[in-house]
């Protein structure tokens, strides 16, 4: 169990993935590796490290933080900018390090491999989310609402999160992020489904994208609310409802 938990840690998985990538490349490249001199020996491996890092940036930041939050213009700008920077870098390495005059075929191959890899990741994410089982273990509505914890499925594992530890929830298209002081969980669920199973008035829906726990409320105005160090805008259609709940006593 401890070993499984260790191997499933995101940092460990990325280290193992990068190590495997570099090892496979070295096996195929070792004959040429010992023929190259100086920095040219390590240049392809440095490029692979940068490429792997770019993939992580795409998966964890561009796709999760922008694309899935409907900020897709920023996503495409970021993706195209990353491809442009990587292409210039690859062009320089090929010309200066390997004396390749016509780098266009290599760049096209690079774009094809990168876009294919990103496409596989995006498809995997959506398919994986769609195939996950129902998020909640349901008994009755009264039991769901009065329970002291929130049961959901994260990475195919059923977990229980105490209501007291939930700072806020954030909608990300077809799944929800649950923020706690120690960890962030991602589960396939609509924010409306989550709202129906959270006890009121402790949890308040403040917009189409957020539900907050009023125990973590720091400050608020008619238009904005501060929870757990984060500032959120109150949706127009929610303002009256939020104001009524915040004026009521727990």
TrEMBL record:
Species in which this protein is naturally found: Xanthocytophaga agilis
GO molecular function ontology, one term from the record: phosphorelay response regulator activity
A Pfam family this chain is assigned to: LytTR
Alphabetical UniProt keywords: DNA-binding, Membrane, Transmembrane, Transmembrane helix
Name of this chain's protein: LytTR family DNA-binding domain-containing protein
Domain HTH LytTR-type: 150-218
Matching InterPro entries: LytR-like, LytTR_DNA-bd_dom
Transmembrane segments: 7-27, 42-62, 74-94, 106-124
């Amino acid at each position: 169990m401890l070993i499984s938990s260790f191997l499933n840690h995101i940092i460990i998985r990325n280290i193992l993935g990068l190590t495997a990538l570099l090892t496979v490349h070295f096996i195929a490249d070792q004959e040429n590796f010992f023929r190259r001199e100086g920095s040219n020996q390590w240049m392809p491996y440095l490029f692979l490290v940068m490429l792997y890092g770019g993939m992580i940036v795409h998966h964890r930041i561009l796709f999760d933080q922008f694309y899935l939050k409907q900020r897709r213009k920023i996503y495409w700008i970021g993706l195209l900018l990353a491809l442009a920077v990587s292409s210039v870098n690859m062009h320089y390495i090929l010309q200066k390090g390997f004396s390749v005059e016509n780098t266009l075929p290599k760049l096209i191959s690079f774009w094809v491999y990168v876009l294919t890899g990103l496409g596989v990741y995006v498809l995997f994410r959506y398919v994986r989310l769609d195939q996950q089982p129902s998020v909640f273990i349901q008994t009755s509505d009264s039991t769901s609402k009065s329970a002291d914890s929130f049961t959901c499925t994260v990475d195919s594992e059923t977990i229980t999160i105490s209501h007291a530890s939930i700072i806020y929830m954030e909608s990300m298209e077809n799944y929800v992020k649950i923020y706690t002081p120690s960890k962030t969980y991602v589960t396939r669920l609509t924010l409306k489904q989550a709202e129906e199973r959270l006890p009121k008035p402790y949890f308040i829906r403040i917009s189409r994208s957020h539900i907050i726990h009023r125990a973590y409320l720091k400050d608020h105005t008619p238009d904005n609310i501060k929870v757990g160090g984060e500032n959120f805008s109150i949706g127009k259609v929610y303002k009256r409802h939020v104001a009524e709940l915040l004026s009521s006593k727990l």
